Amino acid sequence: MTTERTAENLPWVEKYRPSTLTQIQGQTSTVTTIRKFVHEGKLPHLLFYGPPGTGKTSTILALAHEIYGPNYKNMVLELNASDDRGIDVVRNQIKNFASTQQIFARGFKLIILDEADAMTNVAQNALRRIIEKYTKNTRFCILANYAHKLNPALLSRCTRFRFSPLEESAIRAQLEKVIIKEHLSINEEAMSSLIKLSGGDMRRGLNVLQACKAATSGSGSTDSMDPVEVSRDMVYECIGAPHPADIETIFDSVLNDDWSTAIKTMMEIKRVKGLALIDLLQGFVEILGNYQLNSKARIHVLKKLAEIEYAISRGGNEKVQCSATIGVMKEAMLIQAGASQ
Ligand SMILES: Nc1ncnc2c1ncn2[C@@H]1O[C@H](COP(=O)(O)OP(=O)(O)O)[C@@H](O)[C@H]1O
Ligand SMILES: [Mg+2]
Q1: Phi, psi of 289 (to 5 degrees)
Q2: pLDDT at residue 274, rounded to an integer
């Protein structure tokens, strides 16, 4: 990174990455516990796991800065297991780092191994031995999305912390800060859509907000005094998620129109809005959740929609799956009607 790279052209996820533990939103019990470990001088090997954008990397980096301050560079080794998957690279880097004596600083060195669940099983086994070998003067912090992809022997050497999807209040608090700093304005409708669409992932929320700003301020003058207004439509557009109104239009058509009109409506909205069926499915499931259905019809449609989602993920034909989607929703209505006769 060069010094010319000002905060202005950094992605917001980096620009607003918490630099201290107090700036981490949510995850309070985790932060409290690891702070306590540090204060008591009893830092174990750590494992942080959980979905993306919940603060795993930010938390360990902030903790490391808090522990080492200006000595950070000498005392902390950051490795990304998904960049250099080969265990040899990891082993050598760790060996070199862990075995050099610290002349000025005391205490443990810290090795952060990000995205460790991308490592092969062989590599994880080797890592376990490395951890054992260097436990005398190093501590490891392993970061992963899925604990179940890690070798049990590796797991058993670490104290585990689960990073849950962030609560809406945590996402809101951070987004509000950024909105003020970036000279944006947003109404409550747009804000709550943004929070909902973030799905507990702060990275997603920040990226969408930044995309919204980029979409509006492309050519406009930057020294205008008026804040840039972010609307709900922009949020949906930037995230590539279907607008609830479009989902409802398709849903109504499926319920009330004949087959060919329904499929035309769906195809047309998909084309105009640039949506894929996979984007629509979640919207349908949500609408169906609020819809009066008997349990037989509900189970049927949800099960079938899940199968369609799976089929798409396996490369199933989009048009065939669209017809199938309309089919199962119509079928659910027939089951429902049959029961009420
Ligand atoms: N708990 C949090 N509090 C504040 N910001 C967060 C939090 N979690 C994530 N972020 C923001 O999202 C970005 C990505 O977070 P990161 O810590 O890399 O997530 P993870 O490692 O869990 O995928 C960070 O740069 C930061 O801007
Ligand atoms: Mg991370």
Answers
A1: -60, -30
A2: 86
In this predicted structure, what is the pLDDT of residue 91? 80
Question: Could you give the CA distance from residue 248 to residue 259 in angstroms, rounded to a whole number?
Answer: 17
> With contact defined as beta carbons under 8 Å apart, do 212 and 202 qualify?
no
- Residue 122 scores a pLDDT above 60: yes
Helix 277-289 to helix 295-313 angle, to the nearest 10 degrees?
Answer: 160
d(CA 88, CA 92): 6
Ligand 2: centre distance to CA 216 (Å): 29
Ligand 1 pocket member 30 (CB < 6 A): no
Q: Return the sign of the alpha-carbon dihedral for residues 283, 273, 308, 201.
A: negative
Domains annotated on the chain, with CATH: 27-162 (3.40.50.300), 168-239 (1.10.8.60), 244-340 (1.20.272.10)
Grade residue 86 by pLDDT with cuts at 50, 70 and 90: low
CA of 203 to the centre of ligand 1 (A): 6
Of 261, 89, 271, 55, nearest to 167 (Cα)?
55
* Distance, CA of 19 to CA of 323 (rounded, Å): 50
In which residue are the tokens 């992963």 written?
A: 144
Decide: 49 and 163 in contact? Cβ < 8 Å: yes
Task: Please work out whether the CB of residue 24 comes within 6 Å of at least one atom of ligand 1.
Answer: yes
Among 55-59, 129-133, 143-147, 161-165, where is mean pLDDT lowest?
129-133
Cβ–Cβ under 8 Å, residues 115 and 144: yes
